[in-house]
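Input/output pair, single chain:
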Amino acid sequence: MKTRKLSSFIKQNKIRTFLLDACGVLYNDGGFFPGVSESVSRLLKYGEVFVVTNNTTNNIDQIEEKLLQNGVEIDKNNIISSGIGLKEDPHINSLVKNKAVYHFGRNGAEYYLTKAGSKKIVSDLYEAEVLVMSSNLVNNTVEEIEIIKEKISSRPDIPVICCNPDQYILSCTGSKKPVIGYYAGILSQKVRNPFYWIGKPHKNFSEVVGRILENRNIELDKRVCFFDDNLENIINMKSCLGISGCCVTETGLSYEREIKDFEVVDYFVPRLVVD
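Output:
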């Protein structure tokens, strides 16, 4: 792996489309990383920039607002959340569309259920035809998961969809913070219900991203580069779409990996800094 400035890698490989993960690349729970706004502005001079995220705590408008408040100007039409997989993946959508949904997550994610054509959101799991898990709750996630486990055990016919497969994020203190994919994984081991996942690193979400880009007349080749802090996400997106991948190694989940691990991607940088 050659060591050079990110700008040199972009120019040499004629990168024209940039897919940026959010948490771990642009920010963590402590806020946006220094220099991110300036770096995104520089990327926009090379080509088109998308945010490709497993953030289903917030809807697209909320994500756009968060970016803008921190000087990152990316249009909401260029924000691809795994939550839209509820609509855009045919099989996942068939489980949600025209169904009564019990939603485990914060209110912002109800946007994705509406887009997916759900019949209604119910407050009683016994009235639900499907359970969708999108994010941790504001409080008492562990306790509420236990309640869900007890209730759903008597309804093994209800499919469960987790639209954020992330198990952890790296917090601003350097510790791994469990998120909804972690709790959904535990639940899947304790109940008999069929479980479905949509989001990075799963192939179904990579295919959703690919279709969105192709509908925007973006050719899927090495001139498209995906930036993520999770090495597995990059490997799967590269493999599925035939694009380039760059791992951000110090601000997210790959901070403990050895240098040799990054040889499987096209490039790696400590932080998203374009100079």
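The CA atoms of residues 15 and 223 lie 4 Å apart. The mean pLDDT is 95.
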